[in-house]
Design brief:
This protein is of the alpha+beta class and 310 residues long. It contains seven helices and 17 strands. It has three domains: 80 residues, Uridine Diphospho-n-acetylenolpyruvylglucosamine Reductase, domain 2 (2-Layer Sandwich); 114 residues, 2-Layer Sandwich (Uridine Diphospho-n-acetylenolpyruvylglucosamine Reductase, domain 3); 88 residues, Uridine Diphospho-n-acetylenolpyruvylglucosamine Reductase, domain 1 (Alpha-Beta Complex), CATH 3.90.78.10. The protein has a four-stranded mixed β-sheet, with helices on one face. Strands 6-13-9-10 form a four-stranded antiparallel β-sheet.
Length: 310
């Protein structure tokens, strides 16, 4: 068990009366972040959109803070949270992946690896962007997840959300909807519940492209270690041109394998941190400071985080 509950007993009782959800107090969240950081929090698992709407009305009325937790792949969680975690576990129909469609309407719980398998099977153009991202659809849309092959925003047509007052909201995607690793339409308290996805036709080359990229990642990233993905953004100059890759700068500064507590700079790829067992958010903050101190003295550069720190 973690520390004291964020929710008082009256709030716990009111939440537990809502059908279609379950509440766990002080839950161990190591398995709910790919970094496997030591973290605890009050955790609400949602199985229907209606239960989500009812919950948000209660939380907003009681002025309780909440954060949506997906796969926790681009996140650094605190040891103890001053909010409640909302986790969507809404069933979906897997038969949607049986054959190619023009538009796919899917809820935000669907894992991206299912999209990748579907793209390999049918060669869907544009779907190579999912390759290797350990995330749910909702989390990937929220941060406009991407790889060297592109960004998810390019193939999202429409996003369905629920507001903090439990109301439906829709967003038709346009050229301003997404920017690098972020969306520009989710307001505070909104939760993404579903989306319409498109593709740009079929081509057998896509399957090869995806498989080649999977091999590249296997050879160049620490896939078997608990990480949060790339830690830093690649730095740009005043004109917006890329100066260098963050991983190369860290590597050139002799910081591969450097560690603070149970967290180390990966010997495989210097823009990844590996949790060696019992790492915490504090280890993460301290390791970032050490790296930026060295980079500032050697290169006059401080790196910006790509990962979100809660």
């Amino acid at each position: 068990m973690g520390m004291n509950s964020y929710l008082n007993l009256a709030s716990q009782d009111e939440i537990r009366r809502i059908p279609g959800l379950s509440l766990e107090i002080g839950k161990n969240l190591e398995k709910y972040n790919t970094f496997r950081l030591k973290a605890f929090g009050d955790f609400i698992r949602i199985t229907t959109i209606e239960s989500l709407k009812d919950l948000l009305k209660v939380l907003t009325t009681r002025q309780l803070k909440y954060k949506i937790l997906g796969w926790g792949s681009n996140l650094v969680l605190p040891e103890n949270a001053e909010w409640v975690y909302v986790y969507l576990d809404i069933p979906y129909d897997k038969s949607i992946f049986d054959k190619p469609k023009e538009i796919y309407n899917l809820n935000s719980s669907v894992p991206l690896n299912l999209f990748t398998l579907h793209a390999i099977k049918f060669g869907l153009i544009g779907w190579e962007v999912f390759t290797g991202i350990p995330a749910s659809l909702g989390g990937a849309i929220y941060m406009n997840a991407g790889t060297n092959l592109g960004e998810i925003g390019k193939i999202i047509k429409k996003v369905y959300l629920v507001t903090n007052e439990g109301l439906d909201k829709e967003h038709n995607v346009n050229e301003r909807s997404f920017s690098y690793r972020k969306n520009n339409f989710v307001d505070d308290g909104d939760i993404i519940v579903a989306a319409d996805l498109i593709h740009f036709g079929q081509n057998t080359e896509i399957s090869k492209k995806i498989k080649d990229y999977q091999i590249l990642r296997k050879n160049t990233q620490p896939l078997s270690a608990p990480t949060c993905g790339c830690v830093f953004k690649n730095p740009k100059d005043s004109k917006g041109e890329y100066l260098a890759r963050a991983g190369q700068l860290i590597d050139q500064s002799g910081l591969k394998d450097f560690r603070v507590g149970d967290l180390r700079v990966s010997p495989v790829h210097a823009n990844f941190f590996e949790n060696l067992g019992n790492a915490t958010k504090n280890d993460f903050i301290n390791l970032i400071q050490e790296i930026n101190n060295v980079l500032e003295s050697k290169h006059g550069i401080k790196l910006e985080l790509e990962v979100e720190v809660w």
